[in-house]
Specification:
210 residues, mainly beta, 8-stranded antiparallel barrel, 1 helix, 11% helix
């Protein structure tokens, strides 16, 4: 197992500990986002390839949709835990003239944790997701190491969103977010790295009153 893979596995194990410890490091407060169990939204992304991928593409632009589900419980730690589903389409701008186009469509499922700041409408939201990415590559025929066609990859995505939340008249929640994002796609002979950011807008549906 490579050193990078070991570091990734270590990060996956430490993530739950980060969620739990951060709950106690920040003063407890009733976050605006805690009023919503289901949140849906959209986002735009801008990422830059690193490693081997940087020789083929300069950067990527993308559009995405997301849905998030918060656990409807009033228990320490668990009340700020949630699950996410994301779909995204990205266009990678090629730096190699032998590439006509390179598009990626991805689907991920993830887990996140909301860390509210006391007496503000701002929160941090660490998130980790796992899923698949489908690449569509078209070349001019001069790229033997990557023949044109469709490729399927696994992907792991890490993000920490800064979220501003505001209430609406019907007790829903409007969220604006900005997140640094790191995406890793392990391949048989290489690792694809993408580093960038995501800007999003979402709406949280109000909890039904009992």
């Amino acid at each position: 197992m490579s050193i990078l893979c070991k570091k990734i596995l270590r990060s996956l194990l430490l993530y739950p500990l980060f969620f739990i410890s951060s709950h106690f490091c920040f003063a407890e407060t009733q976050s605006q986002t805690s009023n919503s169990i289901i949140t849906v939204g959209g986002n735009i992304t801008n990422q830059y390839p690193a490693g081997d991928m940087a020789s083929f593409a300069d950067y990527s632009l993308g559009l995405g949709l997301s849905a998030q589900f918060r656990l409807p419980v009033d228990l320490p730690v668990l009340d700020n835990l949630g699950f996410s589903a994301r779909g995204q389409w990205q266009m990678l701008l090629p730096s190699d003239s032998r590439i006509s186009h390179l598009y990626t469509t991805s689907l991920t499922a993830g887990i996140y944790y909301v860390i509210p700041f006391k007496n503000t409408q701002v929160s941090l939201q660490p998130e980790i997701g796992y899923g698949i990415a489908v690449h569509s590559l078209k070349t001019t025929g001069g790229l033997p190491e990557y023949p044109e066609g469709t490729y399927l990859d696994q992907m792991i995505e890490f993000a920490v969103s800064a979220v501003y939340s505001a209430s609406t008249q019907n007790n829903g929640i409007v969220n604006f977010s900005f997140a640094p994002v790191y995406t890793l796609m392990p391949e048989q002979n290489a690792l694809i790295h993408l580093i960038g950011f995501r800007i999003g807008f979402s709406y949280g549906f109000p909890r039904s009153s009992k």
